[in-house]
Structures are given as C-alpha cells and as structure tokens.
Amino acid sequence: MSIAADYSEKIPNNVDLREDRRLQRALESWQPNFLSWWESMGPALPTQDVYLRTAVNVGREGWAHFGHVAMTDYRWGIFLAERNQERRIAFGQHKGEPAWQQVPGEYRADLRRLIVIQGDTEPASVEQQRNLGATAPSLYDLRNLFQVNVEEGRHLWAMVYLLHGYFGREGREEAEELLHRNSGSEESPRILGAFNEETPDWLSFFMFTYFTDRDGKYQLGTLKESGFDPLSRTCEFMLKEEAHHMMVGTTGIDRVVERTVQLMREHDTDDVAAHGGIPLDTVQKYLNFHYSVSLDLFGGETSTNVANYYTAGLKGRWMEERRKDDHRLIDDAILVDALVDGRIARTEVAALVGLNSDLRREYIADCQSGVNRWNRILEAGGVARRLRLPHVAFNRQVGAFAGIQASPDGEILPEGEWERRKGGWLPTEVDKTHVRSLMRPVYERGKIAAWIAPPRQGINGQPFDYDYVHLA
Ligand SMILES: [Fe+2]
Ligand SMILES: [Fe+2]
C-alpha cells in the first residue's frame, strides 16, 4: 500500500483506488452528489479562497499541507492510517485473532449500522454550521469554521469509502441516504438528536465543537479499536483531524471567557451584556445545554447492543489496549447511573452492558478538564464566579433520567418547578437574542469582534492578522 496521497486522481487517496476500478467508478459516481450537497448545504458565505490544511499523507511527521484554496476545489480524499500487518483484535471473543481485512458475514449488518451512524453526524454538523460564516468574529475564526467544515466533509468521504468498498449495494444505498437526510429536516432528519439542533451563533459553535465534537472523538476512539481493520485505520486518521476541531472549541470558549472577564473588570459589573459582552450566566447556560444534549449521544446507561458489539470485536473501549483487565469483561461489573425507587442513584450491572457508561465517564472527565481551564482564566482575572458541568441527570432526553426533571445540582424537581426555573439554567429567548445581537461579521484583517478576545496564536505559525480568507 502506498502511504502518500495520490493527487493526480479525481479522488485523492492512499488506498490504491486505481487498482479497484469498480470501487473507483462507484465513488466517482457519488462524487457529484456530494458536491451538489456541499453547494446547497455547505458553507453559505461566498469566498474566493481559504487558508486550509489538506491531508496529503498519513505519516507521523507532517500529514497536512497548508495553502489558500477555493473551497469547491478542496481535495476531499480517502486516507487510512498505515496498516499494521501484525495487528490483532484486542478484545472480545475474537481477542488475539488477526484483525479482519474483510467484513465477517455475521457482523455485516451491525458494522454497517455503526458506520452509518458515525457517517450521519459528519455532514450533519456542516449543515448545522452553514450560516455561521455570515457572522464570523474574525477572518481567523472564519477560516477555522471552514476548516472544520471541509474536514467533516472528508469524514463523510471516509465513511462512504467503507460503505462502498465493503458493503456492496446496501452500502451504496446507505451512502446516498447520508446525503438525503438533513439536519433539522421534518421528513428525514439526521439520526441523532444533537445533530438536529441549530448552531445559530458562534457561542453555540464553540460549545458544539467543545462538547459535541468531543463526543465524536470518543465514538471514533471506540471504532479505532474495531476488529474490522479498514474501519480502525480510517478512524485513527480521522482522530488526527478531530484534534483541531477540539482546539477550536476549547480556545473559542477560552477567548469568550477572557473577554467577559476583561469587560467585568473594566465596568465593574457582572452584567456585561450592556457593554457588548456575553455574561458568565449566559456562558453557563449554553454550556448546560450543549453538555446535556451531548451526554444523550452516548445512549442509555446500559445497552445489550453495545455489549454484543464489544463481544463481537466491532467496537472497543476508549484506550482499550491501555486497560489493565482481561479485555473480555465476562465476569466484571460496573456501577451505572440509574433511577432507583424514584431517586438518582447508582446500580451495579455487568460491565459489558454498562459500556456506554464507561465511555461516557471518560468523556465527562475530559469535559471537566475544559471547565477547569476556563475557571483558571476566571481565577487569573480575579473573578470569584466559576463555571461547572451540570449533573448528569440535568436536561436529559435519553437514558435513565429521561423521565425526570432535575436541576443542575441533581435535585429532582416536580414538572411545574422545572418549568418555572429552567430559564435560569438553559438559554432563554432573551439570552439567545442577546447573543445573536452580538453576531456581526468582522472581515477586516487583524480585527476582532468585541465579545471575544483574539487568539494567542494563529494557524500554522501565521499571525492573527494573516489573510486567512479572501471573500468573494
Ligand atoms: Fe468528524
Ligand atoms: Fe469534528
């Protein structure tokens, strides 16, 4: 297998696509559909070109090329991490067997389903973010938005390659469906709830890239462990691109908090709305919303499907190979969140059925690290107030707590009280209207909107005032 991308091909790839004419033709016939989807559902703001990184290699040192490119000419391609000939399945009943290069017949439907669910999220986020370019706080941010968008487009390609390459006619049909479903659509919505929510403003975008993209990171981490080697290698490379999406969210919220602290000090008030900032109360409400809908993406606390996926070797745990256990988990137990006699509690279940909880736990710890980071900015700015993650029972639509209403402290509330108090915890129309009122585009080089601090660093060593985007 060649490692460097072949850019002489219509579809750049490192999978020797030209050796498989049937697959190449199938993908080439999907390509125009992808491009028309991008035209109608991708970034709405017209641009001449954008300073983007394009994957050119999967090697350890340097896999990306940076340059100004017209977005429609972006080379969406197919890249799999390098194959390890020795790779063996690390968990489940096939532990120790060589990783599969083809789809085992008995797991065909399950693997296809896993790939479709992952694949569905990729174009969904592009759709959700379609109009954000119109209100970008700087050219730097605009460039980052577009970078995230083209890479989510590439992730769709990555999943479509697997569907076309390994799942025959059904795979090709699923690939079509991935372009037909649309975020927020009445008739054919995206599969998962959080991907049908709006991303109407940049605070939402940063929260989305922090909390919801981070769910993606954890899901990809479990698929990277898959016994199906092409899926594993695909996800391994996608994770490299995800790191930038995480950075956009983390530093985006850093910069909002930093600016809010400046305004609080300058005007000696918590209510910075009147001074063109986003109050910490509002930041907390947006955080509450995005965190709680992202927790729903992990599914129920217990799941026999996920137990079966694990046992079959389809989907592992986060950092499977670093876990110090037998990687089969047949006799193990785990404590999971549950409603016991109407109270929020924990209950012990077999480790295998509790795997969603295991993954969610890793995710929550990671989310907490961001909150700690933002709190250090508050502390350094001499602000006593702290941000925090709400209780896992707060605002849930999926799992053990879907049927109750709980406060961010994890106190169960009667319906009426929830209704009365939820405006203190989730963004209200007033909060959203204020945030939206701040969303005015700043397209001048080196300038930044007043509600956010500039970044500490530019992209790829370029300064903040670099010409990251040329508008049309
Ligand atoms: Fe992605
Ligand atoms: Fe992402």
Molecular structure report:
With 472 residues, the chain is mostly helical. It has a single domain (17-471), classed as Ribonucleotide Reductase, subunit A, CATH 1.10.620.20. Helices cover 45% and strands 8% of the residues. The chain has eleven helices and seven strands. The strands form three sheets. It has a three-stranded antiparallel sheet, covered by helices on one side. Strands 3-4 form a two-stranded antiparallel ribbon. A two-stranded antiparallel ribbon has the order 5-6. Helix 5 (202-223) runs antiparallel to helix 6. The two termini are 40 Å apart. It binds fe (ii) ion (2 copies). One fe (ii) ion (FE2) binds at residues 152, 213, 216, 242, 245. Keywords: Oxidoreductase. GO terms for molecular function: oxidoreductase activity.
Domain unit count: 1
Largest sheet: 3 strands, antiparallel
The percent range for helix content is 40-55%
**CATH homology superfamily name:** Ribonucleotide Reductase, subunit A
Individual helix count: 11
Ligand list: fe (ii) ion
If classified by CATH, what would the architecture be?
Orthogonal Bundle
The strand count comes to 7
The shape, in one word, is globular
